[in-house]
Amino acid sequence: MKTVIRGKYLFDGEKLLEHNEVMIEDGRIMGTGSSLRGDRLIDLEDSFIMPGMTDAHIHMSGVESGNLVMEYFTVAERDRLMRTIPWLHKLLDSGFTSVRDCGEGNSIYLRNAVKNGIINGPDISAAGIPLSQTFGHGEFSHTVPVDLSEHMGISEICDGVDECIKSARKVLRDGSDFIKIFSTGGVLSQRDRPDHEQFTLEEIRSIVREAEKAGTYVAAHAHGDRGARNAVEGGVKTLEHGTLVTGDTLKIMAKQGVSMTPTLAIQELIVRYGKDLGINEWGLEKIKEVRDGIAKVVPEAMKLGVNLLCGTDLGFFTGKDIDMGKNWMEMVLMTEICGLTNEEALRTSTGNIQKIGLKQGRIMKGFPANIVSIDGNPLENIRDLGRVNHVFKKGVQIR
Ligand SMILES: [Zn+2]
Questions:
Q1: Sign (positive or negative) of CA dihedral 41, 42, 43, 47
Q2: Ligand 1 centre distance from Cα of residue 386 (Å)
Q3: What share of the chain is helix, strand, coil (3-state, %, to 5)?
Q4: Cα of 96 from ligand 1 centre, angstroms
Q5: What is the C-alpha separation between 317 and 323, in angstroms, rounded?
Q6: Residue 130 pLDDT grade (very low, low, confident, very high; cuts 50, 70, 90)
Q7: How far is ligand 1, taken at its centre, from the CA of residue 107, in Å?
Q8: CATH number at residue 18
Q9: Digit-coded pLDDT (tens) for 71-100
Q10: 244 CA distance to ligand 1 middle (Å)
């Protein structure tokens, strides 16, 4: 059965089209046009129609406060997994029909459950358990026994090329869609700093090689420039955060087609509400430098042509104006903090996603019929992204 969805405006993930209708059949987009003839018409009148959005950096952890260490060590893994089910519903309801989980064991099982129709949720591209060096960001706590984070399924610890190869193969065997590594220290880890280099260039190369052999890629967490440069030279495909990278590194990224996920939402959240949310004092102490850094990096990345992705880095329930289900706030922050135009911001959750190889984010023949309609026009007012009124996933009306 051919269904035509009609609105007032039609944004295809790259630009506003002249016409205002999409034809879908069997969960796929057949094409766009005006006065299309189908078996059924869904007239959404004054709505703004766009592709379902993707949050390209999320953690389906089920954690309910900013005190990650405490929660990971006191809440059973299966309880955390169950807590993420309402998160999936919120994401879908708010127009996010796809997410990329950048490090969390739960994500593998959630991906499978969504794929098999057991639960409703966005399509999940899952990193599974991320790779960290000893005394790395992936440990969170640097005072508990070093192998505890592995036992808890927080990260896979590996040092030296041989161990990196083995860990890469292990997570791929466990079902990771891509591999997440930490190539610098971070904010929410206890004793390293965002500018600390983690993993060597050789270690990163060996992980990238294993990923490529299995037909996939590596995403690297990186704040400081030296660690980010290692990641980029090592061949990663996406750089997560990138808060302190230099223009030279951005130039290489643009040339090699490395995408960047600035994750403004988590930084802004910690700056605004960190203490209230139970963020450890080490996190509160380090947040300012990365938040100030990213405000300068993103406009330069944009100017140099680096592909930017919308990713909130949300991994715990906040109850604030930046939260699971309000992931569109990332795009608001891109315009407010980094000066992107509304259209540039909108592309980060739609058309730019396609460039990392996910079949998402476009209203184009052959793409899954993941379509969202909005009451308003986010090209004029970016906050209209919070006014989603219909959501279709693979052609099925969810909302
Ligand atoms: Zn993250």
A1: negative
A2: 23
A3: 35, 20, 40
A4: 18
A5: 7
A6: very high
A7: 13
A8: 2.30.40.10
A9: 888 999 999 999 999 999 999 999 999 999
A10: 16
Domain shared by 350 and 381, yes or no: no
Question: What CATH code is carried by the domain that includes residue 102?
Answer: 3.20.20.140
Together in a domain, 175 and 112: yes
How far apart, in whole angstroms, are the C-alpha atoms of residue 297 and residue 267? Answer: 14
Q: Does residue 190 carry a pLDDT above 90? A: no
Asked if residues 345 and 88 have their Cβ atoms less than 8 Å apart, the reply is no
Closest of 245, 286, 238, 247 to residue 266, by C-alpha: 286
Is the pTM value of this prediction over 0.85? Answer: yes
The reply to whether 139 and 9 lie within a common domain is: no
CA of 27 to the centre of ligand 1 (A): 31
3-state SS assignment for residue 61: strand
Domain count, the chain: 2
Cα 59 to middle of ligand 1, angstroms: 6
CA 354 to ligand 1 center in whole angstroms: 20
Least confident of 167-176, 231-240, 282-291: 282-291
Cα of 130 vs centre of ligand 1, distance in Å, is 10
Backbone φ/ψ region at 372: left (φ over 0), alpha (ψ -120 to 50), beta: beta
Residues 81 and 172 in one domain: yes
φ/ψ (deg, to 5) at 65: -150, 170
Could you tell me the distance, in angstroms and rounded to a whole number, from the CA of residue 238 to the centre of ligand 1? 12
Expressed in angstroms and rounded, the spacing between residue 193 Cα and the centre of ligand 1 is 15
- Residues across the chain: 399
Whether 143 and 272 map to the same domain: the answer is yes
Q: For residues 43 and 70, state if they share a domain.
A: no
Give residue 243 CA to ligand 1 midpoint distance, Å: 13
Ion ligand 1 residue ranges (Cβ < 5 Å): 102, 313
* Same-domain status, 61 and 39: no
Q: In angstroms, what is the span from residue 312 Cα to ligand 1's centroid?
A: 8
Backbone dihedral region for residue 392 (phi beyond 0: left; psi -120 to 50: alpha; all else: beta):
beta
One domain, residues 275 and 167: yes
Helix residue ranges per DSSP H, 128-224: 148-151, 160-173, 201-213
Range of the domain at 384: 3-50+362-397
What is the per-residue pLDDT for 150? 86
Q: How far is the CA of 34 from the centre of ligand 1 (A)?
A: 42
